[in-house]
Design goal:
The structure holds 2 protein chains of 2 kinds.
Chain A lengths: L3 H24 L6 H7 L12
Chain B lengths: L17 H11 L4 E5 L6 H12 L4 E7 L4 E6 L5 H11 L4 E2 L7 H33 L4 H22 L1 H12 L6 H20 L7 H35 L3 E6 L2 E6 L8 E4 L8 E6 L2 E4 L1 H4 L5 E3 L4 E2 L4 E2 L4 E7 L5 H16 L5 H28 L2 H15 L2 H21 L1 E3 L2 H8 L3 E4 L1 H5 E7 L7 H11 L5 H12 L8 E6 L3 E6 L2 E6 L1 H4 L8 E6 L5 E9 L3 H10 L3 E5 L4 H11 L3 E3 L4 H13 L4 E4 L6 H6 L2 E5 L4 H6 L2 E3 L6 H35 L5 H20 L5
Parallel strand pairs in B: 15-22, 15-24, 22-23, 24-25, 25-26
Antiparallel strand pairs in B: 1-3, 1-4, 2-3, 5-6, 5-7, 7-13, 8-11, 8-13, 9-10, 9-12, 14-26, 16-21, 17-18, 18-19, 19-20, 20-21
Helix pairs in contact in B: 2-3, 4-5, 4-8, 5-7, 5-8, 6-7, 7-8, 7-12, 8-13, 8-25, 11-12, 11-24, 12-24, 13-24, 13-25, 14-24, 16-17, 19-24, 24-25
The chains are: A mainly alpha, B alpha+beta.
Chain lengths: 52, 729
């Protein structure tokens, strides 16, 4: 069962990354327009190039 | 929708994310941020079309549509006016309104929502991790492994409960201080007891720890709270939209100069210019000019009244033909419009005393839960003398009975139902309105502006000789009076070519005159052309020395009014019509819609009395109205609804706002509210059924963390899914 000593911290660490990502998404306003964002993905306009 | 077919020319405007847009606006031009409301936007193509078109407007740096809130924020130079953008959007086929940014204090709500979402996210993260560890314990981990897993769970769960449970603790504390038992007291007690008990058990190497249950409880209840919050936030922002649409400005005249000032800056004695077509911003007295006034929003009369020097005017009336100079007698807080709004605010508090189904359930539920847990504890202590075991069982009872399903049942249903109504064009301003709507058995309509659009259309054109019609059309084209506009439009649709009339001249407040084939021709008020004024809305045509002819008008029906009334009658609701207008007009409309119960010439007090009488007879009344003369009645009714075109005071007084022009959703709303109430009851039944099974198990001491987790998630899932069934039509 010694493997647990690595696995538990590892799983908590991975979960923590998810949590931090969630905080980041929250802070950068990604939940301010859920309906619009779900439709924007269907739009033909590409936004892979950043605006000048 | 030809705009959709255009090739994308600019790079996607969508890439300018909100923060970027704000940064841009801040950098190049401080104050250049514009907000427009787009009530009709609804699809992915609309977003692209609107953003692409706006960015092409000179001076616009970026445009970003928020589809959830149905508005677009534009970063632009100060030279860009909202009017120019609105005109652009109108050409695209989108109705747009300027929003007063100051009225929209969204930041506070945004912050609250984000805070709740953050706590929910933390609870969700902790729940998954603790559950992972718990599965190992449930499947037979023992001794040191079990203790280790319990300790790790404790490390994750305790801070989570402290952080995520904060809203419940705060509410429970407030409730206890007010000597009440809300839903939050049992929740907080369960959270704290479960955490503390599990910590003690873990320290002593016990078998059962309820960390997973505590975190799960947090998560499900926060989900309910968040749903509840979102529903209210969307409703509030839409209501603020409507308020922000009325930008309160007036043109003040000092000496020779005219300046646009805020309503709050006006003082008694100031002179205010009111253009034709504009609404009176203040109470006052006319000192210059003649015109006609549309008082329908205040009194319900559809017939415009003549106004000249010395006529008193009230805020909310619409100036129709000539420009007026008005001396202010009461402004802002003292104006009749505001006094009425204050009256409504006082009456509002009375309605807030309505207890919802959830409140009633909580009132029974909270004491029962505490009693059950206490009984379990005392019973087991008396039976076994083992305090630790007894406490364990009491905690298990608290956790299992805890109102997960109850906390989710109502918000989930209300969210699903009001979401569907919102898409249909109805805004529910207050959660309990949905329940009250379900109880309605009588619907009272106002006429002008509610069942009708307050827009006239000529009704006897066919009876007029063709040449007279041609003259009338020519005269009507020269005026912007609503009757004249309607007449000119009707003549155009009928294919009538206007006759060549010379010397056209509008006499504000009276009508239009001109010269045709050497004779004087006049179109206007009865007294001016020498006719007898009738009861119906009419304008009169006089050609030379001939007898004047009356052109009568009926008010145009609101689209969907007929089918809405029919749908309500089909559902077995009694439909009444009460209006301030003259009997001939009201009666004609009632017959057209098949309403047998109608009352004309009603003053605001009469409307209230009629509704009070219906209520006294045991009916639950829904009032639908739009004018200032309806506000008191709207407040007195069990539920009230007003169209978006209504006066601000009327919208504030009503629980539900009809966002579009169409009346059709009204019938569907009543049916849906009935369904929603049914779902809420079903959800309560489901929650009770789970408790009936799980509570005896807990009381007998057979409850394990596994059973608690299963009961909780299963009941929460069932009620959520049951609520979601409402989303399907």
């Amino acid at each position: 069962m010694n493997i647990l000593a690595y696995l538990i911290p590892a799983s908590l660490f991975l979960g923590g990354i998810g949590l931090v990502a969630f905080f980041w998404a929250l802070k950068s306003d990604q939940y301010s327009d859920p309906e619009g964002d779900s439709r924007r993905i269907l739009s033909d306009d590409h936004d892979d190039a950043p605006k000048p | 929708m030809t705009a959709l077919g255009r090739a994308p020319i600019s790079a996607c405007p969508a890439c300018a994310a909100m923060p970027a847009a704000e940064a841009l606006a801040g950098a190049s031009d401080p104050g250049g941020g514009l907000l427009l409301s787009l009530p009709t936007i609804h699809c992915a193509a609309c977003i692209a079309a609107v953003e692409r078109d706006l960015i092409r407007h000179p001076g616009v740096q970026s445009a970003r549509v928020n589809l959830t809130l149905k508005r677009v924020s534009v970063a632009a130079d100060t030279t860009v006016t909202p009017e120019a953008l609105i005109e652009r959007l109108a050409k695209l086929g989108y109705e747009a309104h300027p929003l007063d940014g100051a009225t929209l204090s969204m930041t506070e709500t945004d912050r609250q929502g984000r805070d709740l979402l953050m706590r929910l996210g933390v609870a969700g993260f902790a729940m998954m991790n603790v559950m992972l560890l718990s599965v190992a314990v449930w499947s037979g981990a023992s001794d040191a492994t079990r203790d280790l897993f319990h300790w790790i769970s404790a490390i994750i769960a305790l801070p989570t409960v402290a952080f995520s449970g904060m809203p419940f603790f705060r509410n429970a504390f407030a409730a206890l201080r007010a000597r009440r038992l809300g839903m939050d007291v049992p929740i907080s007690l369960a959270l704290i007891l479960a955490s503390a008990m599990s910590l003690v058990e873990t320290a002593q190497g016990g078998r059962h720890a309820y960390f997973d249950a505590a975190v799960m409880l947090c998560f499900f209840l926060l989900a309910g709270r968040y749903l509840d919050f979102r529903t209210r936030a969307v409703a509030r922002s839409a209501a603020q939209h409507l308020a922000a649409l009325e930008v309160p400005r007036a043109i003040r005249v000092t000496g020779d100069t005219e300046a646009l000032v805020a309503l709050a800056d006006l003082a008694v004695g100031d002179l205010v210019r009111v253009r034709p077509g504009a609404r009176m911003p203040v109470d006052g007295e006319i000192v210059e000019g003649t015109s006609e006034l549309d008082r329908s929003l205040l009194t319900g009369e559809s017939l415009p009244v003549w106004a000249g020097v010395g006529t008193p005017v009230a805020a909310g009336e619409v100036n129709l033909t000539g420009p007026l100079l008005v001396r202010v007698t009461a402004a802002g807080r003292d104006s009749s419009l505001h006094r009425m709004a204050d009256l409504v605010a006082t009456a509002e508090n009375a309605r807030n005393r309505y207890t919802t189904l959830a409140d009633r359930a909580a009132r029974v539920y909270a004491p029962l839960v505490h009693l059950l847990a206490a009984t379990a504890f005392l019973g087991w202590v008396w039976h076994t003398g083992d305090v630790r075991l007894s406490l364990n069982i009491a905690v298990a009872v608290l956790i299992i009975t805890c109102p997960c399903a109850l906390g989710l049942a109502v918000p989930a249903v209300v969210t699903a139902a009001s979401g569907r109504l919102f898409r249909a064009g109805l805004l529910i301003k207050d959660g309990s309105a949905l329940e009250r709507l379900a109880e309605v058995d009588t619907v009272v309509f106002d006429k002008t502006g509610t069942l009708t659009l307050g827009r006239p259309e000529p009704s006897n054109l066919a009876a007029l000789p063709r040449p007279a019609l041609a003259v009338a059309a020519a005269l009507a084209q020269a005026s912007s009076h609503p009757l004249a506009v309607a007449l000119a439009e009707a003549a155009r649709t009928a294919g009538v070519r206007p006759a060549p009339v010379g010397d056209l001249r509008e006499v504000p407040g009276y009508g239009v005159e001109g010269r045709w084939q050497g004779q004087q021709v006049r179109l206007g008020r009865a007294a001016w052309v020498g006719a007898d004024p009738g009861a119906l809305t009419a304008t009169h045509l006089k050609i030379g020395g001939a007898d004047p002819v009356a052109i009568t008008f009926t008010d145009r029906l609101r689209p969907g009014a007929e089918s809405a009334v029919a749908a309500l009658m089909a559902q077995g609701k009694a439909v009444h019509l009460i209006s301030g207008d003259v009997p001939a007009v009201v009666g004609a409309l009632a017959r057209r819609l098949g309403i047998t119960d109608w009352q004309a010439g009603a003053l605001p007090g009469d409307k209230v009395a009629a509704i009070a009488a219906l209520a006294a007879a045991g009916h639950k009344v829904m009032m639908v109205g739009d004018g200032l003369n309806d506000t008191a009645a709207l407040t007195a009714a069990h539920v009230s609804m007003s169209p978006a075109s209504a006066l601000d005071a009327a919208r504030v007084a009503s629980d539900i706002v009809l966002l579009g022009k169409d009346m059709r959703p009204v019938g569907a709303a009543l049916a849906l509210s009935g369904q929603a109430r049914q779902r809420i009851r079903e959800n309560f039944a489901i929650a009770v059924a789970y408790n009936l099974i799980a509570v005896p198990i807990a009381l007998l001491g057979f409850a394990t963390p596994l059973i608690a987790a299963l009961a909780m998630s299963a009941s929460s899932l069932t009620v959520s899914l049951n609520a979601l069934r409402l989303r399907q039509p």
